[in-house]
Amino acid sequence: MSAVGPKVAYVKRQAQTRNHTCHWPGCTQQVPPAMWGCRPHWYSLPLALRTRIWKTFAPGQEKTGLPSREYVAAAKAAQDWIQDQLASASKGANP
Ligand SMILES: [Zn+2]
Fold it and tell me: Which is deepest, 43, 54, 87, 94, by most CB within 10 Å?
């Protein structure tokens, strides 16, 4: 399944079935296991990364715990992007 629309509908239907927090480092917000993270953090990712996560997400992977290699790579790219943001933020606005 590669079309994003049905997957969005699927994810929105999912409930908080277990302890699962937002994937943003340090965020303790509980989000349904099918969701990457809380709304503010999800939308702080660049659109290209969000699209990549949507395209590689397979409904049900959050239950089997077996995401595809492509999804893992997309999630890793998101974490790398976040680390870059945090690193540049900690250096301050004045380069
Ligand atoms: Zn969050």
Answer: 54
CB atoms within 10 A of CB 1: 10
61-77 residues labelled b (16+ CB within 10 A) or e (exposed): bbeeeebeeebeebbeb
CA of 32 to the centre of ligand 1 (A): 12
Q: What is the DSSP string of the chain?
A: ---HHHHHHHHHH----S--B-SSTT---B--TTSSS-HHHHTTS-HHHHHHHHHH--TTHHHHT---HHHHHHHHHHHHHHHHHHHHHHT-S--
pTM above 0.70, yes or no: yes
* Residue showing tokens 């999804």: 71
Residue appearing with tokens 């540049």: 88
Whether the CB-CB separation of 46 and 81 falls below 8 Å is answered with: yes
Per residue in 57-80, pLDDT tens? Answer: 999 999 999 999 999 999 999 999
